[in-house]
């Protein structure tokens, strides 16, 4: 029974990764359901924003994730990356709201898209938390 602690710690890494993959899959499933249930594929425009969100960090932010969260003044390119990432994240919420205002999608589709955004955001935040732990390989 003393080995259970070592076994449990060894299992947590793959289990966390599988949980994050499952959570991300649920977010993508909600994204597709928001379109398929209402037979309207306009909400898939938010997938474009999901693709654009990490791009500024990849191109301009040559910093680690802990430096990216800090608000200290520093590199102008890193600040530009933070701004563009925030702009893309707000766009992920704004696109369904604008489409609903223009009456291109139903209210139910908009709420499902918001739920998808929350699930994907939770996945990203949990991944960042898990990747910053020392015992996670």
Structure in words:
The protein is mostly helical. It has helices at 4-36, 45-52, 55-59, 65-69, 76-101, 107-131. Helix 1 (4-36) runs antiparallel to helix 6, helix 2 (45-52) runs antiparallel to helix 5 and helix 5 runs antiparallel to helix 6. It is flat, with a radius of gyration of 18 Å. The mean pLDDT is 82.
Tags for this model:
137 residues; mainly alpha; 74% helix
Could you give a quick summary of the protein structure above?
The chain is mostly helical. It is built from six helices and no strands.
What is this structure's SSE topology?
Elements: H1 4-36, H2 45-52, H3 55-59, H4 65-69, H5 76-101, H6 107-131
Helix pairs in contact: 1-6, 2-5, 5-6
N-end to C-end Cα span: 24 Å
Structural class label: mainly alpha
Shape: flat
The overall pLDDT, averaged over residues, is 82
Protein name: Vacuolar protein sorting 55
Pfam family, one: Vps55
Subcellular location: Membrane
Membrane topology: Multi-pass membrane protein
